Amino acid sequence: MGNSNGGVNILGTNGLQNFRLLGLEVFTISPYQAVSAVPEPETYAMMLAGLGLVGTIVRRRKAQQA
């Protein structure tokens, strides 16, 4: 399954490496890192422009009804 190096068991299946010490999993190293999505500034600008447009439409509709 894996080779034992002085009490540390290193398993190299499907890219993951599990490090075990005395039968307990100490930590796991994966070649893949989780990346959280960070919106670009243009995304915020488009969202604010859209909210401004919706606000303008609502304000005009209220003014026409009064």
Provide structural commentary.
The protein is an alpha+beta fold. 38% of the residues lie in helices and 32% in strands. It contains one helix and four strands. It has one helix at 41-65, and strands spanning 3-5, 8-13, 16-21, 24-29. Strands 1-2-3-4 form a four-stranded antiparallel β-sheet, with no helix packed on it. The protein starts with a strand and ends with a helix. The model has no long low-confidence stretch (mean pLDDT 75).
Keywords:
1 helix; 66 residues; 32% strand; 4-stranded antiparallel beta sheet; rod-shaped; 4 strands; alpha+beta
Distance between the termini: 78 Å
- How much of the sequence lies in strands comes to 25-35%
> What is the strand arrangement across the widest sheet?
1-2-3-4
The number of helical segments is 1
- H/E element sequence: EEEEH
Q: What level of helicity do the residues show?
A: 25-40%
